[in-house]
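Morning - zinc ion inputs below, output right after.
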Amino acid sequence: MKIVIKNAIIVTMNQNNDIINNGQVEIDNNTITYVGNNREVKGEIIDAQGNIIMPGFVNTHCHLAMTLFRGYGENSNFKNWWLDYMRPLEEKLEVGDCYYGATLGILELIKNGVTTVADFYLHYDETARAVVDTGIRANIGIGAITGREVLSEDFLNNELNKISLCHRIKPILYAHSLYSCDESQFLELNKFAQKYNLIKSTHASETLMEVGTIYNKYNKTPIALLESYGFFDSPCILAHCVHCDKEDIEIMKQYDISVATNPSSNLILGSGIAPLYSFIKNNINVSIGTDGAASNNNLNMFKEMYLADNLQAGVLNQAQAVTTIDALKMATIRGAIALGYNNLGRIDNGFLADIIMIDVHRPNMQPINNVFNNLVNACESNNVVMTMIDGKIVYRNDKFYCNVDYNNIVNHCNKIIERIDTKNI
Ligand SMILES: [Zn+2]
């Protein structure tokens, strides 16, 4: 039956940034079929009671199962965090653990209004199961997760089969980084991406140490090295891009490259602040990721939008360097574009029904002088009162409507942490 959401402030995120007051959205199956003023029509009626209806957030860089490691390894710079804390824990992960970590991460995302996530982590078949059970939309990274995988067309086809469990899952080809993978792995991904028309992703220019290491070894920046590997010859997402100079940006703007910026992870691990203003000025598509909860420490796109906007203002002494509309676009439509969708990230006819409702009647959202400014600078994830993905309500008023039991998932996660014994590593 048709779902009809009435009496909403619709933040469309369309090309004109239209806002429709007293608006109505109609959904047939998983698709938006009407966006406009209130009108009489039959269906399952949801009264938005003057709340905001907007596209769900698209998180373009995450490591869901790392939710198990939230709060572990704090106050470490990236290298120590990775080598001294994360790697030893990952060695102790057993089959089945990542399902629970990924499910917990997805439940947090759904509660925070994220409807699509791009994930890159070990045991991705378990992440795919978590996606099926929770109802989120996902791009799941396959390829060189640790850097030790030997890639071939047969290997990648086999991995592709493992994750292709439902229509909400799309694959994304992944090499962890230039410092953990070698040229042959990037070249194999290039071939597979072109043959099957898939998007690729890797971590790039996250820390000064990475840029120095790569430069000393290859006499090139990470961006220039990736270009020389042909990695940019088909669409790709580069995670972080904190330390990109003018020459790097000149290279990036020539290709179909999206940046996945992860501002809070870059602050927590002491990595730096990405030059988002320069990317946007050069028409490079910037999207937002949360990174994993082990370096964030929550999966909250409101926090990331706030930082993506206001860090640029602070660093550049320029309040309008990145606007609140820019930040909202990064978190919705630009993320959808990065992941290869042309029907996601907007409230518009023919677009996928991935929709969230924001309660505007709480003190932190009143009054509304400017909807965009309230959403980026005043709104909190607790204002999300409904999350709809693919035309189905998966979260409403503090309750999940998924094929998982929240308490059971949390209990399993705590048992895993007890077994791994994080205090004695
Ligand atoms: Zn990452």
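Note: The first strand starts at residue 3 and ends at 11.

O.
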